[in-house]
């Protein structure tokens, strides 16, 4: 693959990503959000470090750090504070979309999805935790 083909490929990918509502977060920057409704954070490119608080009810079981790779999704509860940062020196492209109420209410908690051998891994999203 030549250099011009590589640039054309990445330019096309970036244009396609922008067409589908993908946002970009540059290295050294962070995004802080607290959704009013359940939301899905889907990573399109790069790696994300997401820090979640205890949620609107302060249970603490939903809090912690989560590392996501391209193609992975993390469900964020309504009222739960999340801080998203790119890992390393790569940009992060992500999509943050509202989730249907029935999907959000039945989603398996991220720490259970990340457990090895969990049957819910194939059903729910594939977040990885630290």
Automatic annotation (TrEMBL):
Short name of one Pfam family: DUF2917
Top-level taxonomic group: Bacteria
InterPro entries listed in its UniProt record: DUF2917 (IPR021317)
Protein name from the UniProt record: DUF2917 domain-containing protein
Provenance organism: Acidovorax kalamii
């Amino acid at each position: 693959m030549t250099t011009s083909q590589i640039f054309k490929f990445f330019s096309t990918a970036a244009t396609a990503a922008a067409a589908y509502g993908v946002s970009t977060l540059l290295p050294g920057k962070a995004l802080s959000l607290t959704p009013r409704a359940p939301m899905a954070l889907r990573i399109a490119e790069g790696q994300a470090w997401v820090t979640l608080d205890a949620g609107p009810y302060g249970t603490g079981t939903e809090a912690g750090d989560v590392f996501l790779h391209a193609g992975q999704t993390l469900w964020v509860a309504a009222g739960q504070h999340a801080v998203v940062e790119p890992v390393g020196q790569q940009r992060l492209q992500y999509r943050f979309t509202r989730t249907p109420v029935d999907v959000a209410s039945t989603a398996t908690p991220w720490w259970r999805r990340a457990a090895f051998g969990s049957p819910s891994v194939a059903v729910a999203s594939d977040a990885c935790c630290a």
